[in-house]
Input
Amino acid sequence: MIGFRFTQFQPDKEGDNFERLLNIFLELLNYTAGDVQEALHWLNELDREHNLTNDDYTMADFIEDLKKEGYLREDNPGSGSFVISAKTEQTIRERALEEIFGKLKKGGHGNHRTPFAGKGDEVTPDMRPFEFGDSLDTIALTESMRNAQINHGVDDFMLTEGDLEVNEQEFKTQTSTVVMIDISHSMILYGEDRITPAKKVAMGLAELIKRKYPKDTVDFIVFGNDAWEVELKDLPYLKVGPFHTNTVAGLELAMDILRRKKNTNKQIFMITDGKPTCLKEGVRYYKNSWGLDKKIINKTLNLARQARRLDIPVTTFMVAKDSWLVKFVQDFTQANNGKAYFTGLGKLGEFVFEDYERNRRRTIR
Output
């Protein structure tokens, strides 16, 4: 008699150890801003405390596997110093997508639905008369043949342009997004790391757009005393600096980037944890970390109104809930006619995803 024989499962210890250590190593890279040596130092500390490795698979074996699998490369040949590879950067983004946007359902072709009909790749039940320029593969043959019989009769059957009907399709559009990431010193104050979750959200969002909306554009900028663009590959390496929060510079740069985009739909996502505290006037900086400085706040609100006139909504994700900060964000949101979320770090990614999806399906006039 043919049956099943059950034995005790013996896992591949080396493979399991590598994957387990790799998960910890990649997480540590987020906290060390991509510094391999520091991440390995902390991994060794964790190994000494929690016995992550054993005699069969040591930390040296893990490092060799990292090099062999293409996760590490030598900074300079023969130097013995390592940096993360493009493969590692991609893996970090993929894991950020899985962690932040793990509830995504499969599907979609990277285009955005709108309430309007037009050229697209998703057929609707609606019909309309054929117009010059319509693709031949959109012609509804059954309905067109029926129209020809009604209009010309069976005995003198003919099919003319006036008989043709086409299946209406959903018009789909593209969106240009700028993600602003606050790297001021307050993002690590009070014993709370806010920059790492912010980076994860940015990386997850980038991977989401790349996979689900490949025709879209997304740019990333950071803002402290000044604002500047960063590349997608640079996101794992972002660090907080001894900066104030120049929200004005960030908004000016974001709007300047979006002005150069040809897409009709444009939006800004701003991830921050505090109030604007800095302005640049010529070559000098005007700074005030205490309270809400009217000069800085008024300039920030003026930019919010300017973005509104340009039809660029700003969605603010404030990772703080102080009442006076809430009031400022409410004023900013009202001036821009945008959106705002006040959230703890645990739900930051979920809010970004939900609002991003909604913005994708709206049409900006």
Q: What stands out?
A: The first strand starts at residue 72 and ends at 74. The chain has a mean pLDDT of 80.
